[in-house]
Amino acid sequence: MHAQLVPPQEYDTDAVLTIPNVVSFVRLLAVPAFSVLIILGHDVAAVILLAAFGATDWVDGFLARRLKQRTALGAKLDPVADRLYILAAVVALLVRGIVPIWFVVVLLARDVMLALTLPQLKRHGMVALPVNWIGKTGTFLILLALPLILLGSPSSLGWVWAHWAGWIFGGVGAVAYWVAGLLYVREAVRLGRGEAT
User: Fold this and answer.
1) 52 found inside a domain
2) Which family does the entry's similarity section mention (predicted)?
3) Higher-confidence position of 8 and 51
4) 42 Cβ partners below 8 Å, 6+ apart?
5) Is the pLDDT of residue 75 over 50?
6) pLDDT exceeds 60 at position 167
7) Residue 168: which domain range?
8) Which DSSP category does 79 fall into?
């Protein structure tokens, strides 16, 4: 018997417009502004915005627990927001010529791979598998790496230490991102075989 793939989730309410969810919606609405700031060269402002909305990632979870407003929607919004920020950042950095196309392909191919598991999950009444700690670590490292890569670029502030630190974090984060993705695919396959308990 395999470990349970989808542990039962405890939610406090089915409401959509809870305070934590509103915080998450605001974070999502800021994604276009974030990418535009990078493309237009307002790098420090973009990094400040990313840091501010990164902090809200903790705030909405804290509020959900404190106010007893944990919802299924809120649980889905967090990883969606993280992926959108990564997508917005890498595309904007590609437009600026700061990251190579292969780096963008590496990150996006992983999400395409996961998207292919959605039909299988939907057949079992699911929209996603629970986020694992490797995925959280990879996402955190990539979200840390991208602003460092930006600020380390010669077309930005040119901080050499930020350039090297950014690419180290980005490389390790990309590996963790893919390891987590492959684990998600393995669990989706197990689910399809009826091996979940």
Assistant:
1) yes
2) Belongs to the CDP-alcohol phosphatidyltransferase class-I family.
3) 51
4) none
5) yes
6) yes
7) 19-192
8) H
